[in-house]
UniProtKB/TrEMBL annotation:
All copies of domain ABC transporter, residue ranges: 6-231
Locations listed in the record: Cell membrane
Any one GO biological process: response to antibiotic
The protein, known as: ABC-2 type transport system ATP-binding protein
Membrane topology type: Peripheral membrane protein
Family (UniProt): Belongs to the ABC transporter superfamily.
Length: 307
C-alpha cells in the first residue's frame, strides 16, 4: 500500500509557555487537494514549517512523501513546491533572474515552462522585484512553487494579494496539478477557492485539529447571506419558516435572509415567483470558524472522512 503524502502523529510544538500545535494527527493522501483551514494563529503556518523541517517539533512524528524531513530534508525539498505565507526574496533581482536561479537549484527548469506560467499570471519577468506590487511578488511565488511540477505542493495563503481573475487562474492551476497526480496541501482563508479545488479539508483551531471533512460537507455548513430581487413584492412569512433560512427581511421587491445549510427549499420557494437576480455572499473563513466552531459547537473528537 502506498504511503500517504503527509502523515503526522501526535505532532506537538511549543514555544516556551506558548502553544503552537497540540497532538496533531494529519493524513494527506497522494493525489488529493487538501485544504488546511483555520483562523489566524491557529497553527497552520507552524504545521507547514514542521513539514518542511524549517522548525523542529517538541514531540511527535512527521513523514512527508514517505521520508522523515529531519533526516532527508535536502532531497525531500527537491520534490516539493513551497510558497510561504510571507514570500520574501532579494528585491535587487529581476523576476527572471530569481526564477532561473531557483530552477537551477532544482536541477534546471525549462525557460518555456517559466514563461508559460508567467504569461498565465500576467507577470512581467523583466522587472526588478523591489519595484513590484505585493500582488506581482506573489505571482513570482506561485510560479516558483509550480514551475518544476513537484510531487507535492505546500502552499500557505497562496492567493494573498492576487486579483479575482488571477485567483481563478490559480484555481485552474491547482486542478491541473491534481489531474497530473500531484498532491496539494494548501492553507487558505478564501472559501470559494477551497470549495473549487479541495477534495477534503482539515480545520485547525488553537493548535488542534477540530474536524476533517469532505468539501461538500463543509459547504453545507457554511452560513451565507442571500439577497433575492423579485419582479414583484413577496411576503416575508412565505420564506421565514423554510428549513435553513433565518433573519428574513423584505424591502420592496428585495428579500434578504441568512442561509445555514442546503439551499433547496429557498430556491424552490423563490422559483414560485419571477426572480430578477440572486446573490449569495460566502463568509470569510475566519468569520465562519468563530461562528460555527464556537465553544458551544466544539467537537470532542475528530471526524475523519473517507479519502
Amino acid at each position: 500500500m502506498t504511503e500517504s503524502a503527509i502523515n503526522t502523529e501526535n505532532l506537538t510544538k511549543t514555544y516556551g509557555r506558548n502553544r503552537g500545535l497540540t497532538g496533531l494527527d494529519l493524513r494527506v493522501e497522494r493525489g488529493e487537494v487538501y485544504g488546511f483551514l483555520g483562523p489566524n494563529g491557529a497553527g497552520k503556518s507552524t504545521t507547514i514549517r514542521l513539514l518542511l523541517d524549517l522548525i523542529r517539533p517538541t514531540s511527535g512524528h512527521v513523514r512527508v512523501l514517505g521520508v522523515d524531513p529531519r533526516t532527508d530534508g535536502v532531497r525531500l525539498r527537491r520534490r516539493i513546491g513551497y510558497l510561504a505565507g510571507d514570500f520574501v526574496v532579494d528585491g535587487r533581482q529581476t523576476g527572471r533572474d530569481l526564477l532561473t536561479y531557483l530552477g537551477n537549484l532544482r536541477g534546471g527548469v525549462p525557460r518555456s515552462r517559466i514563461d508559460e506560467l508567467a504569461a498565465r499570471l500576467d507577470l512581467d519577468l523583466s522587472r526588478r522585484i523591489k519595484g513590484l506590487s505585493k500582488g506581482n511578488r506573489q505571482k513570482i511565488g506561485v510560479v516558483q512553487a509550480f514551475m518544476h511540477s513537484p510531487e507535492l505542493l505546500i502552499l500557505d495563503e497562496p492567493t494573498s494579494g492576487l486579483d479575482p481573475f488571477l485567483q481563478h487562474e490559480f484555481v485552474t492551476m491547482v486542478r491541473e496539478a491534481r489531474a497530473a497526480g500531484q498532491t496539494v496541501f494548501m492553507s487558505s482563508h478564501v472559501m470559494s477557492e477551497v470549495q473549487q479545488t479541495a477534495d477534503r479539508v482539515g480545520i485547525i483551531r488553537e493548535g488542534r485539529l477540530i474536524t476533517v471533512e469532505r468539501v461538500e460537507e463543509l459547504r453545507e455548513r457554511a452560513v451565507r447571506q442571500v439577497e433575492i430581487v423579485f419582479e414583484a413584492p413577496v411576503e416575508a412569512a412565505e420564506f421565514a419558516s423554510l428549513p435553513n433560512v433565518g433573519d428574513v427581511t423584505v424591502t420592496g421587491n428585495t428579500l434578504r435572509c441568512r442561509l445555514d445549510g442546503r439551499a433547496d427549499a429557498l430556491v424552490k420557494a423563490a422559483g414560485r415567483h419571477t426572480v430578477l437576480s440572486l446573490r449569495a455572499e460566502e463568509p470569510d473563513l475566519e468569520e465562519l470558524f468563530f461562528d460555527y466552531y464556537s465553544d458551544s459547537h466544539d467537537r470532542t473528537e475528530v471526524q475523519h472522512a473517507a479519502a
